[in-house]
Design a protein that fits this description.
With 295 residues, the protein is α+β, with helices and mostly antiparallel strands. It has helices at residues 6-31, 36-83, 130-136, 217-221, 261-267, 281-289, and strands spanning 87-90, 94-97, 99-102, 140-141, 147-148, 160-164, 171-179, 192-199, 207-213, 224-233, 238-248, 272-273, 290-292.
Length: 295
């Protein structure tokens, strides 16, 4: 019963305790009665009383395993079918792009334990701070091509990213700089990668980035998550590139041992299509289409 994780261990523990109780009761039924007749009655009574319990336990265990295997088979079939439509479609690339418009920001309350979490496939950072998502578009790349929070880097990120603040409905421009956080002024000289936010000085960037959770309720009930990531020409409303991805937790949401179902699914090979890139996947895809202007 390894499929059930801690649940299987618990069942085995309960089963072991049960048989110890049965054994103890049989010993008592055999040795405590004063004569053979009472001994036979006592032992028979213990056997009759306890005989039903192993049968019921075995039947319940069989049903749990049967239901699990049926759900897993259904989930696997659905996931494999969805993967036939997954992948990247790039219709057009654009050179010399300085900034992007983030048409939809990531939620700040993402929970990897939550079966109904928004777009688990598209999640690739800790979104407790909205700036984390915005900042990934401004990071540069080091000599090995890895994204790094420093300026300047070997290769630059986008010069700016813009987004509408849902609290006031206004559009803001975000740029990056190295500086000391306000709470650290006078306490330390160490600099950090920071974002400067100011009202947008002009028209919004022509090219926008957005995403959608495309999971159906039936798929999510089987721990399948679908994601659409699109790059849009906002002047023509043309979708110039799209990535469709799916992910499944083959353990069907098992949380044993503090296991985070969606995080675990992200990191296992073969549990997503295309294979999930844990770090900055959105930026990595967008950069294929909107080529960053060298500075």
């Amino acid at each position: 019963m390894t499929e059930l994780g801690m649940g299987a261990d618990l069942l085995r523990l309960v089963g072991g305790v049960f048989w110890l109780v049965v054994f103890g009761a049989l010993l008592a039924a055999y040795f405590l009665p004063k004569n053979r007749r009472n001994r036979v009655i006592a032992v028979s009574t213990v056997l009759v009383l306890f005989a039903a319990f192993p049968g019921r336990w075995a039947w319940n265990d069989f049903q749990v395993q049967r239901d699990y295997r049926a759900r897993l088979a259904d989930a696997t079939a659905r996931f494999n079918e969805r993967c036939k439509t997954a992948g990247e479609k790039i219709h057009k690339t654009v050179e010399g792009v300085e900034g992007v418009m983030l048409l939809k920001l990531r939620p700040t309350n993402y929970n990897a334990y939550d079966q109904k979490a928004v777009d688990p496939y598209g999640h690739d950072f800790d979104w407790e701070k909205t700036d984390s998502y915005i900042g990934t578009f401004l990071w540069g790349r080091d000599e090995k091509g890895f994204l790094v929070e420093k300026t300047p880097a070997n290769k630059p990120g986008y010069r700016y990213a813009e987004a509408i603040d849902p609290k006031d409905g206004k559009r803001y421009r975000y740029t990056a700089y190295m500086g000391i956080r306000p709470e650290h002024v006078g306490k330390t000289h160490s600099e950090s990668f920071l974002l400067r936010r100011e009202p947008s000085p002009g028209p919004q960037p022509r090219y926008g980035v957005t995403y959608d959770d495309i999971t159906t309720p039936e798929e999510r009930a089987l721990w399948i998550a679908g994601s659409s990531l699109r790059v849009i020409d906002t002047e023509t409303n043309e979708v110039i590139a799209e990535r469709i991805g799916y992910m499944i937790d083959f353990a069907l949401g098992n949380k044993g041992g503090f296991r985070q179902p969606w995080t675990f699914a992200q990191r296992r090979e073969g549990w997503s299509c295309p294979q999930h890139i844990v770090s900055a996947q959105t930026r990595t895809f967008v950069e294929k289409i909107l080529k960053i202007k060298e500075q």
